[in-house]
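[scheduler] slot 2 assigned
[scheduler] job type: sequence-to-structure, two independent chains
[scheduler] chain ordering preserved from manifest
[runner] begin chain α
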Amino acid sequence: MGGGSSTDRRYMSGMLPEDYWEKVAWPENKEVLSILQLNKHQALKIFEAFVDIDSDNSGEMSVEEFHVYLGMTSTKFSERIFGILDADASGALNFSEFAVGVWNYCTYDVRLITKLAFDIFDIDQQGKLDLAECDALLRMVYDVPHLDNIEGPPSGKEIMELIDVNGDGEVTIDEFSDLMETHLYILQPALDLQRALRQRLLGVKFWDGLTELRRQLFAAEDSLASNSIESMKEILVIKQKERESRQHQEEEALSEEEQAHILEQKERARRKHAEKQYQKKRRVQKLNAQITEEEKAEKLALAEVRECRLMLEEPFTFDQLSERRQAREALYSAANKLKDASLAALNVRQANERKNSIEVDRSVDLFLPAF
């Protein structure tokens, strides 16, 4: 953690700052900060700064603490910026307001800073200011009671003459933006405030990169919003919806993938079962092909004996004695056939076993050393 968060310092809920970050601050703000393209490490740097500023461990920073941290004197404009960051108008910033507000202001390009300053006084959101409102805008930015106090160069009077380009007594946002392209000094205090924030938090180069990323990702929200504050709200709301939509699509895709995986497993099991059945059938066919004629005769004789026995086991009447006698004679005959067939099959099996044994002995002899 940063310099203000020593190892023995206790922060909110009596936790160490690093524990509070891991258990509370990051989980609560992860979604929003991720939308703003801040990873956990970068967001931690902003949290460390917040803890350094929040010296009383209240979980909030006051406008005074804000200016002390930046090393700047409080002005009406900087106080107004603080008020804009203070989303709930509580008079203090919590970490979420600070992080989102810092990102918002630090990623402004000149066009958006111009729009921000313009929006502060364009109360009716008509996209134009009269000269009195322009006068008030400049006095607030430069923190002076009268334009005459802006000595310049250019002086306050000269700036006003530049602003009212066509002398119609009104300035549109487009006219004001065009003027800022070539006369940055008009809003120099606003640019100085941004630079101070950038330097204290993550560095100017880092924020330059995020400013470019903001142009790429959030240009629509920045251009269509009625003012710069609404732009920030639009970014968070729309991008959150986009993230939720992507998550929903990913969940659906995952569900479809799981279904496909289940179907694939079932198909694999079906093919495996079919292969087993096929191999079993092949083994049976192979075994049948290896059966000798004697063994086939033995099987037929055994089947005949079983059939004769079944006939004798059936109940009979006195009138069926003759048939019964014939069935018994058939059983005796079948038994004799089975005896002869079994003996013949046994002789064949023994002969084959002796033959196989001799072949095994011969194959073994090939590997035995000669003596």
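[runner] end chain α
[runner] begin chain β
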Amino acid sequence: MASSSSTTDEVFNCHLCDKSYTTNSNRNKHLKKCHNIEIPQDTSNHRIPCAENYCNGLFGTIADLRTHLNEAHGFTFHEDYRFFPTKRTFLHWKKKLEKSERVRFIKTQGDKLRKNAVQQYFHCNRSGSYISQSTGKRKAKVTCKMGHQCTASMVATINRISGEVIVKFVKEHYGHDIPPPPTALQANQEIRRSVKLGKAISLTMSLMKVRTITMLKSLIEEGGFDRVLDKLEVMSAGAGQCVCELKIANEHKNRAGLLHGGMTSTLVDAVSTMALFSKIERPGVSIEMSVSFIRPANIGDELFIEGKILKVGKNLAFLTVDVKNKITGQIIAQGKHTKFVGEQASTA
């Protein structure tokens, strides 16, 4: 028949008096308080770092970190106590708090049994390391971890008889403004988002280019003065900009065999109007236009015409156009165009 052996809990006695304690830390607190003897702490298991610049402090508990941040770096923390009649009301308050602060308070250790009560410990979910303990490298997956500990925490004491809950709550977070470096996955996701955004912008500009070309064709087909633009080619249009190209032909010359000033002014008028149309989808009515003729252009030269919006207000739009030699890049002419774009503006 096997005999059962009884085990007794270890007792830590004070060597200066008859006091005894169940834990070594409680005995050390007694020695410091009653006998003014401070036992040096074992810092071998202190793994909670201070994230402040040029500070190499390591601490064993979040409470020690808070004390250090307060004394050494001037941070302020407040302990708040909350009472809840049931655990359900406590969890409802906790969920509402998490939603407002965009964090979660998660249990970091098992429940601790006290006399007629259970204690649960919660800490901010952003606490912790983003470095893998097995590989020593940055975790590949997306993580909210900061690489150090947040000081926000709560301790819930649940009465096992009445069900009432008392919460000790430290609400001040620490270190959330110190983001971890992005992972390779995060970088790739950002690139994919940029590509998708670029495709969306490209598609929008392509649709606006079609609408702008349609508007130009309708002007030419009306058979009025705008028919001189039949060789104008729209290269791009959208977001308040329009780029066109034109090869100077015989019908565009003046008596000297150069690009006619009237044709240049017509290009300024037309391209600036198309730039405006690409933004607000109405041409507006011209109020004022000026053209500076800088260099001559010959028959056969290819022109690069770029129009863009400087400003659009409630009633007025201010536009500018550069006419350049496509090959040399030299500016042939520059134009400024002011248009009325109020609700009554219906014709160019």
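[runner] end chain β
[qc] chain β: Residues 184-221 form the longest helix (38 residues).
[scheduler] slot 2 released
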